[in-house]
Specification:
Strand content: 15-25%
Protein name: Peptidase C39-like domain-containing protein
Number of strands: 5
Number of domains: 2
Strand order of the largest sheet: 1-5-2-3-4
Organism: Rhizobium esperanzae
Largest sheet: 5 strands, antiparallel
Radius of gyration: 14 Å
Distance between the termini: 29 Å
Length: 105
């Protein structure tokens, strides 16, 4: 699925700012076949495992890869960072860590 496909599902179209709500995001994830769990509340990056969509303060979403320590912030145009000054409020794991996957097996 391309970026344009996802953008169309969220109705971003040609908008310069790509805002969405949690409900819109969950609807898109469900439409592409991902099971949606209840977001997990947290205030610490260290609580997050695997790859997760993270809701941070000031009503913003990021993608965080905990295993590699990479922060993918759509507001940062230069690409993934190794640190973030944003404070997480909740997250939804989209790809579990290897450790979690082994425990589940």
């Amino acid at each position: 699925m391309s970026y344009d496909d996802v953008a169309a599902m969220i109705d971003w179209g040609d908008k310069s700012a790509h805002y969405t709500t949690w409900n819109d995001l969950c609807g898109v994830l469900a439409e592409i076949g991902w099971s949606i769990e209840v977001p997990i509340k947290t205030s610490r990056w260290s609580d997050i495992q695997g790859v997760a969509i993270v809701h941070v303060q000031r009503d913003h979403f990021m993608l965080y890869d905990a295993e590699n320590g990479l922060f993918y912030d759509p507001a940062e145009m230069e690409g993934p960072g190794m640190a973030s000054d944003r404070v997480p409020t909740s997250y939804l794991t989209v790809y579990p860590s290897a450790l979690t996957a082994v425990k589940l097996s």
